[in-house]
Design goal:
about 45% helix; globular; alpha+beta; four-stranded antiparallel sheet
């Protein structure tokens, strides 16, 4: 648990003694696959760091349609917005695979940040990176076709969760259904299935159950541009 949490932005550049004190104040949360950590609209009162497993963040429209905003993995944070801007949760967080998290409340965070401007800078950088990814996703919806968005999503997942193999391929155990991949790229499942079948036929990837093996990452990276 300590190693994964120590890689989160909260701890970067902080000494072992101070980091140990904060770790001691963080609560451990374990969820099975499919369990909800918090729902959109809930009162937000804790920041979480993922220790192991993956969590998806999604929103639901009034007509029932769902949109997958992000998939987060070990050492990434979620729920931090409610600590800096108190208000209801803006998304629903669901465990994609069995997940372990470390939670931190507002009192502990305020005490931690007091007198540690370098930690605040790391947190701001993490929030800026999240905003940058959101801006890129919005731009892709406007300027990139569905196959390009699918290729981009697969490359992003590979960069963060990929398991390189000796033959140069990268296995990505994303844990998502094809419907969830479609939600992630803002397209219909049928269109996404067609793109995946095309990439498979070209020899760029090999699909597996809730995973994919990227055989030619560079081709997919170029297709995403």
């Amino acid at each position: 648990m300590d190693d994964a949490v120590r890689r989160a932005p909260l701890f970067r550049g902080v000494g072992d003694t101070a980091a140990g004190a904060l770790l001691a104040s963080m609560g451990r949360v374990e969820l099975p696959r499919g369990a909800v950590l918090f729902r959109e609209g809930d009162a937000g009162d804790r920041l979480y760091v993922i220790v192991s497993g993956t969590v998806k963040l999604g929103r639901r429209a009034a007509d029932g349609r769902e949109n997958l905003l992000a998939v987060l993995g070990p050492s990434e944070m979620l729920g931090e917005l409610s600590l800096f801007d108190p208000g209801p949760r803006t998304a629903t967080a669901t465990a994609v695979a069995p997940v372990v998290l470390a939670g931190l409340g507002p009192e502990e965070l305020d005490s931690w940040l007091s007198g540690r401007p370098e930690v605040a800078r790391h947190l701001l950088r993490a929030l800026a990176q999240r905003l940058r990814r959101t801006n890129d996703a919005v731009a892709d919806l406007v300027f990139t076709d569905v196959p390009g968005r699918v290729a981009g999503a697969l490359v992003d997942l590979a960069d963060r969760f990929g398991q390189p193999a000796a033959d140069g391929s990268v296995r990505v155990p994303h844990g998502l259904t094809q419907e969830e991949i479609a939600q992630l790229v803002g397209a219909s499942r049928e269109t996404v299935n067609k793109a995946l079948a095309d990439f498979s036929g070209r020899g760029w990837l090999r699909p597996e159950a809730r995973a994919v093996v990227l055989v030619d990452v560079e081709r997919l990276r170029r297709r995403a541009r």
